[in-house]
């Protein structure tokens, strides 16, 4: 039997993503075990953001597999990734510039009837629609949906 520490919390195997004339990710393998912290480093254009966008459900890989706790998953949208416990903190976090970073992060969290105001729910709903619209358009597959990212987190 395999011990829980031996199974990565997150695995990316053979991830390939191309854009017209560019290979952004060429058979990338990456895994994270519980308690580990990783940094993706590289020059501009090395494919860091593309990989993170795939793991967060913003882009679909052309090839490869993502596994959570050893089980294969496929994300058709960021909503799917979030439902599986995988989220992303964007590098340029300006969904609502007039709010704090904490308030912006909370926009993406599920609403709790007991602690959420009607206005906060309305703002979250409007923001979710904008993000969902961008994530669901066919352009997402080609990478034309704007997104810059710095990290992916597992809740």
Q: Which residue ranges are poorly predicted, with pLDDT under 50 across at least 5 consecutive positions?
A: 114-151
Output the number of helix runs. 5
Number of strands: 6
CATH architecture of the largest domain: 3-Layer(aba) Sandwich
In CATH, what is the homologous superfamily of the largest domain? P-loop containing nucleotide triphosphate hydrolases
Q: Which CATH first-tier class of the largest domain would you pick?
A: Alpha Beta
Helix content: 25-40%
Distance between the termini: 26 Å
CATH topology category name of the largest domain: Rossmann fold
Whole-number tally of structural domains: 2
Strand order of the largest sheet: 2-1-3-4
Query: Mean pLDDT across all residues, rounded?
Result: 75
Please provide the ordered H/E string of secondary-structure elements: EEHEEHEHHHE
The geometry reads as: globular
| Rg of Cα set | 16 Å
State which percent range the strand residues make up: 25-35%
Explain what you see.
By secondary structure, the chain is of the alpha+beta class. It folds into two domains: 1-88, 3-Layer(aba) Sandwich (Rossmann fold), CATH 3.40.50.300; 90-144, no CATH class. 28% of the residues lie in helices and 26% in strands. It has five helices and six strands, in the order E-E-H-E-E-H-E-H-H-H-E. The strands form two sheets. Strands 2-1-3-4 form a four-stranded antiparallel beta sheet, covered by helices on one side. The chain has a two-stranded antiparallel ribbon with strand order 5-6. Strand 3 (63-68) and strand 4 form a beta hairpin. It is globular and about 40 Å long. The two termini are 26 Å apart. The model is unreliable at 114-151 (pLDDT under 50).
